[in-house]
């Protein structure tokens, strides 16, 4: 469709008006925040009681710093690669269920070739097409670009089966939690398109089809439609684990030990890292993710000591161990925990965590959904549990999720704290 000059002019005017409104809103917010800032209030009192040049300068600087901080926080950071993805826009999401996909998502060992629902025939029956067809991929890309905030009541977390807790916690933190969901959109688009980051096709075909099933599992978990048929899924991720393990080229897996089979013990981050490495995340536009696991690195992060670090990372994962390994950071010895950290001139915010229980047998996670905190344990066979989990990072206290007897303690056990650039 051709856009006339008149329409272009109207669009430019609308964009300028929208920009002015956004700037005005930020300034209004900054002014209100500055008036409540303790540093600003103290400087104001000193300037009022003794209005000399020194006190007036301090007051001005305090106000400017408060406004600067608010403006930075009001602009939510987005990884560079998101600019290349399908534009997010409001619209209707279509359920892809109803063509036998439920069976692929519930069984431990099933095929990865499946069909998706792209609409209805005149008689009301579903129009089913292969997921790896042009129309199948198109409907999933449509849903990805039209996603809306999650309804916590609709979410279907994956169930615990065959020791897949490590995979399920990765699934929830990277694809359901607020920041993970935003930063990993590129991963989902690659899975749907069946392409590596360099544009080449994912091979073999079985692996490409497995990635499509992985994306379908994420859609099923979101359960945007919320119908009874969609909500009855017993989401089992073992079919995905099994087929990734069997289809990823051995030339890659022999040098990347994070890819595990069903019933094998796995590390959530190691699996994700190896999987995204295969997709080509060494590309400069991919989100920059690093792990700080040694005492010096963890303490430097919390102290904003970045003399030897030139990279501004998009995601920083703090890994705290209970293994007793020399030089490794422990939950007891790490520098005092912070929910928000300024490091290397970038602002980071804790979005989620993954933790191993006190018996070193089972993983759970804490996520943030619509800015509220929830706990998840697949073994509890329950919905997400509302709980302000960040308080557990400060207390040497054991706790459980739901009615299980499994105990966690973030001040003594193994954990990963996921900080995203904010």
TrEMBL record:
Region of interest (Disordered), ranges: 1-37
Organism of derivation: viral metagenome
Basic residues compositional bias, start-end: 1-23
Protein name as annotated: Uncharacterized protein
């Amino acid at each position: 469709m051709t856009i006339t000059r008149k329409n272009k002019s109207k669009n430019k005017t609308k964009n300028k008006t929208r920009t002015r409104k956004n700037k005005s809103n930020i300034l209004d917010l900054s002014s209100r925040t500055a008036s409540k800032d303790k540093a600003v209030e103290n400087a104001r009192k000193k300037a009022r009681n003794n209005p000399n040049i020194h006190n007036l300068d301090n007051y001005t600087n305090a106000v400017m710093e408060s406004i600067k901080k608010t403006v930075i926080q009001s602009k939510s950071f987005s990884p560079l690669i998101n600019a290349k993805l399908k534009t997010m826009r409001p619209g209707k999401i279509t359920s892809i269920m109803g063509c036998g996909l439920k069976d692929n998502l519930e069984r431990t060992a099933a095929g990865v070739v499946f069909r998706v629902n792209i609409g209805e025939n005149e008689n009301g029956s579903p129009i089913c097409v292969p997921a790896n067809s042009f129309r199948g991929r198109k409907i999933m890309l449509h849903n990805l670009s039209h996603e809306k905030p999650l309804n916590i009541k609709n979410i279907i977390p994956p169930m615990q089966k065959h020791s897949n807790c490590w995979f399920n916690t990765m699934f929830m933190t990277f694809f359901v939690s607020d920041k993970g969901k935003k930063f990993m959109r590129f991963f989902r688009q690659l899975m749907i398109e069946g392409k590596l980051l360099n544009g080449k096709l994912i091979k073999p075909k079985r692996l490409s089809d497995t990635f499509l099933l992985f994306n379908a599992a994420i859609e099923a978990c979101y359960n945007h439609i919320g119908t009874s048929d969609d909500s009855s899924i017993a989401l089992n991720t073992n079919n995905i684990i099994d087929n990734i393990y069997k289809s990823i080229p051995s030339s890659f897996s022999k040098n990347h030990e994070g890819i595990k089979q069903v019933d094998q013990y796995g590390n959530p981050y190691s699996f994700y890292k190896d999987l995204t490495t295969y997709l080509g995340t060494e590309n400069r536009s991919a989100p920059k993710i690093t792990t700080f696991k040694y005492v010096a690195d963890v303490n430097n992060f919390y102290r904003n000591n970045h003399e030897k670090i030139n990279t501004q990372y998009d995601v920083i994962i703090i890994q705290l161990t209970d293994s007793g390994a020399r030089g490794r950071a422990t939950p007891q010895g790490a520098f005092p925990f912070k929910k928000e950290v300024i490091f290397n001139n970038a602002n980071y915010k804790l979005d989620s965590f993954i933790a191993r229980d006190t018996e070193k047998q089972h993983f759970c996670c804490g996520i943030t959904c619509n800015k509220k905190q929830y706990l998840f344990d697949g073994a509890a066979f329950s919905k997400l549990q509302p709980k302000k989990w960040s308080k557990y990072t400060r207390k040497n206290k054991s706790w459980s999720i739901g009615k299980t007897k499994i105990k966690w303690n973030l001040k003594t056990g193994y954990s990963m704290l996921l900080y995203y650039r904010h």
